[in-house]
Amino acid sequence: MKLKKIIPSALCLGALTWTSLCAATNWYFAVGTTSAVDVSTYMTADYGLCADKSDRFLVFDSGDYTVDNIQLRDVARTGVTSAIYVDTGLLKVVGSIAAGGNVDSDGVFAVRGGTVTAASMALGGGTGSNADYTLSSGTVTIAGGMTIGAGATSSNYILISGGAMTVTGSTNIGGGASSSTVMDLSGTGSYLFANRINAGTNSYSSTTINLTGNSKMQALNNTATIGLGASNYAHATMNVGGSAIVSTSAEMYLGQADFSHATLSMTGGSVTVANNLRVGRSNTTSGTISMTDGYINTTNLIVGSGATSSGVITMSGGSISAGTLNLAGNNRANGTVTIAGGSISATTVHLGGGAFGTAKLTVATNGQFIGTTVNVGPGTSSNGQLTVSGGTANVTAMNVGTGHLSTGTVSVIAGSLVASGTVQIGNAANGTDPVVGSSSGRLEVLGGDFSAAALNIGSGNTGSGTLFISGGNASVTNAGGTARTNMGQGTNANASIIMTGGNLWLNQVVMSNNSSSTPVLSLSGTSKATISSYLNVGGSVGGKGTVLLAEGARL
């Protein structure tokens, strides 16, 4: 009985007769030697495959083979490994491919060429099992789902260094409690997915996904997502370097489930998320992005996306581009971004977008921040902070303290902050929260340089705005001498310019446009303020204002 195209639906390498092999329903591999058994050589007699009772390695070479299921799962035999190697030809598995399916079992499935298709794949399904899967050349297509590390305390390793693997269903990694899985994509290896990738799908599991070289993990449709930390208390890490590509057409989550933690670390390559990249997606989760190089592109980047969640981005290189950047985007969330090198650019920026959220964005050393519209403290009772301690920050319009009962603070310590449009401080009525109420905004120049095309201080009803200068340089000017600084425009607003040092250049200053606001211009210490056009104290009829000039200060 010579088999070259079709293998019986179930085979066993062990002490069984050929008759019993044909009656079995799955493949089981028994203890034996480490030598490989080449199907093209040994499948030439009725019982040739079982002639050696210690065989445990099977190699598929040329030809087409069809089987019902493959199970590499030695039963509780420490140190025993069952393995299949595919070199050329076509291996069609009607059902599933399973490696490490039993307690303390080991299984290896290696594709070194040819084509493999299967309905599903499961690696490390048994408690304490170990499963290895490698793809160095050829193609593997899974019509259904792929499950990795479903067994408690299982240890699993996936290496895709060449070829392409396509999974139509969901990929679930780390489904066993305290399981450990490492997935390495390197060289030109590709992992293509049409549904979702869930990494860390059980409590206390650990998953690491590494992408290097020219490898890629890429979505095949507009609904596929990537979730790291997909179950409570799970840990998941993705490391991207070289010229590797990660691309999803829907969303990506870092810290997907409650109390989970996930990290995206980039030393190169690119990550593209067509919709939302959520850092700390669920309640009480934590998510982290660490970048020294590489590129992230997304429509919406939410740092601290879930209620009481925590999101952190730390950059010393690389670049991030987003349509919207939202820090602390949910109730009582925390979002922190530090740009010590590299750059972040976004069209709309919310620092404290969620109610009671706390957001901190720091531009330091050689960092660069670019924002078209920047709202500092837009959420109800939020606390937003923008600190420039080095590098450059370039914005078009900036609103500081814009949400109902919010607090917004902008500090320039070193480097430069340039606003090509209007900066509004204490602007409660013009934030993302439509409720008009008292907000507090403060812009402080302690060193470095600040400039704006126009400045409104205390522009929201009952809002409070302060420009504080103790060092460095601040200017609201233009070539025509028409740049306007308005103080106390809002009803019952408080507006102050307080200088204890540094330099301030202004063109036109109007202090109060109504009778209920109380603007103050105070200079002391070594401060120097220059108003090139005019100073209007009182503004409109009934308006008022106070100018305080201490000895040593100059106006």
Helix/strand layout:
Blueprint (H helix, E strand, L loop, with lengths): L11 E2 L4 H6 L4 E2 L7 E2 H4 L14 E4 L3 E4 L2 E3 L9 E5 L3 E10 L6 E6 L3 E9 L6 E6 L3 E4 L3 E3 L6 E6 L3 E4 L3 E3 L6 E6 L4 E4 L2 E4 L6 E6 L4 E4 L5 E4 L6 E6 L4 E4 L3 E3 L6 E19 L6 E18 L6 E18 L6 E18 L6 E6 L4 E9 L6 E18 L6 E19 L14 E6 L3 E9 L6 E6 L3 E4 L7 E4 L6 E6 L3 E9 L6 E6 L4 E10 L8 E4 L6
Parallel strand pairs: 1-2, 3-4, 4-7, 5-8, 6-8, 7-9, 8-10, 9-11, 10-12, 10-13, 11-14, 12-15, 13-16, 14-17, 15-18, 16-19, 17-20, 18-21, 19-22, 20-23, 21-24, 22-25, 23-26, 24-26, 25-26, 26-27, 27-28, 28-29, 29-30, 29-31, 30-32, 31-32, 32-33, 33-34, 33-35, 34-36, 35-37, 35-38, 36-39, 37-40, ...
In words, what does this structure look like?
- This protein has 555 residues and is an all-beta fold.
- Helices cover 2% and strands 55% of the residues.
- It contains 2 helices and 43 strands.
- The strands form 2 sheets. The chain has a 41-stranded parallel β-sheet that branches.
- It is elongated.
